[in-house]
Design a protein that fits this description.
Distance between the termini: 29 Å
Bound molecules: N-(iminomethyl)-L-glutamic acid, fe (iii) ion
CATH topology of the largest domain: TIM Barrel
Number of helices: 16
Strand content: 15-25%
Helix content: 25-40%
Strand order of the largest sheet: 8-9-10-11-12-13-14-15
Oligomer: single chain
CATH class of the largest domain: Alpha Beta
């Protein structure tokens, strides 16, 4: 130990590999898979931030640690960022899963009063305490699976009070849990039963009452809309998202998921941070997203859950230079999945993405879609110390091996928040 060695809080040692994207902006094209991979890499952390990244001998020579974390010959990667989740609900929908295996479609189930509306009944009936307890358990699960930041949508309340209740539950969880949560208002997720015969009045309610109240209470950073033929069409979506922009809530959209409606073009027009799903996007839609710098967020497990024989053109997006992100779309209906590594494995297989590309997409690009790429998403000096130690020999194993949680330890804001014994 040299006399000039700097005292730090934590050093991570004994890793076979450290793998990370680099930079503070989303990456596309050939840059998507351009990782920095350090054999025998180590990290030094001080006051919540990364102060050193490099070969272990160099890190040990430069820093003296208060605490050492043994990576046990595994791999260190940035904490995963899940930029599309619906985690505020009470009750699950396994019967719908089974109905789909017998041939029912997502839209048929929704039209029969199931789907989103069954979760709406659950949220309306549940107390804040129950919703918060549910959410905290789900956040524990995210952390165990290596996810250190999520975007969380409301959208199962569909009254002003129940949407605000959901967002307040998110705010309460934020104050109590290590997982960083980015709140999104999704009042336009579906039409509640009481507005089925007067849909335009529900859009009025979202625009005139819900959005102003959510914005003035500072309860959301983003506003999402389920833009789809059976729910909110292009005109209604545009009206909602323009109002959101005026109130300082940046749009993100469920776009072109079940049909080619022009959701991608609308996302570009309103300056959305992301356009999500995109199974049915067309080439003009891709051009529009690229020109407007919108991050496409792909959810590769959802079509499987919905039994839709259609996949988003992931490879084509990347080759056209789009900065693709990956997410689980965790929700009780169309994807009851919290594991980003599972979504990454499916993305590799479905979209022909390399392991390196999936890692950038589930870290840096996801963080960029949440306006946090300056602070999150890579392992570089100056960034917040959010990372995961995995018991895999290299980052390629993360998508190669399925069905096991490879997380050995999770560090959030410089603190070891999970450690496998
Ligand atoms: O992302 N597409 C709309 N929303 C969710 C489904 C929510 C639900 O079925 O509860 C999704 O797939
Ligand atoms: Fe969704």
């Amino acid at each position: 130990m040299s006399a000039k060695s700097e005292a730090v809080d934590l050093i991570v040692t004994n890793a076979r590999e450290l793998a990370t994207a680099t930079g503070a902006a989303a990456r596309g094209g050939a840059d998507l898979g351009a990782l920095r991979v350090i054999a025998g890499g180590a990290l030094a952390v001080k006051a919540e931030k990364i102060v050193g990244v490099g070969p272990e001998a160099e890190i040990r020579a430069r820093f003296t640690a208060g605490e050492t974390l043994d990576a046990r010959g595994g791999t260190i990667v940035p904490g995963f960022v899940d930029a599309h989740t619906h985690p505020v609900f009470d009750g699950t929908r396994e019967e719908e899963f089974e109905m789909r295996t017998r041939g029912a479609t997502y839209i048929e189930i929704a039209a029969a009063g199931g789907g989103i509306l069954s979760s709406v009944r659950g949220v309306r009936e549940a107390s804040r305490e129950v919703l918060l307890a549910n959410l905290l358990l789900r956040l524990d699960r995210f952390l165990e699976l290596g996810t250190t930041t999520i975007e969380a949508k409301s959208g199962y309340g569909l009254t002003t009070e129940d949407e605000i209740k959901s967002l307040e539950v998110i705010a309460a969880a934020r104050a109590r849990h290590a997982v960083e949560i980015v709140p999104t208002f999704l009042g336009a997720h579906d039409y509640p039963l009481e507005f089925r015969d007067r849909k335009s009045l529900y859009v009025d309610l979202v625009v005139e009452e819900m959005l102003p109240r959510v914005a003035s209470a500072g309860l959301a950073e983003y506003c999402d809309v389920f833009t789809e033929g059976h729910v909110f069409g292009i005109e209604d979506s545009r009206r909602i998202l323009r109002r959101a922009n005026e109130l300082g809530l940046r749009p993100r959209l469920h776009a072109d998921q079940l049909s080619q409606l022009g959701g991608a073009q609308l996302a570009a027009e309103v300056g959305a941070a992301s356009a999500d799903h995109l199974e049915f996007v067309d080439d003009p839609g891709l051009d529009a997203l690229r020109a407007a710098g919108v991050v496409p967020i792909l959810c590769p497990v959802v079509p499987l859950y919905l039994r839709i024989e259609r996949e988003a053109p992931g490879r084509r997006m990347i080759d056209r230079g789009l900065c693709v992100a990956l997410s689980t779309d965790f929700n009780p209906g169309s994807c009851y999945l919290q594991s980003l590594p599972t979504a990454m494995a499916w993305a590799a297989l479905r979209y022909r993405m390399s392991a390196a590309e999936t890692l950038t997409a589930a870290t840096l690009n996801a963080a960029a879609s949440l306006g946090r790429a300056d602070r999150l998403g890579t392992l570089e000096v100056g960034k917040q110390a959010d990372f995961v130690c995995l018991d895999v020999p290299n980052h390629r194993h993360l998508v190669y091996e399925q069905g096991r949680n490879a997380v050995l330890a999770v560090v959030k804001k410089g603190r070891v928040v999970r450690r496998r014994s």
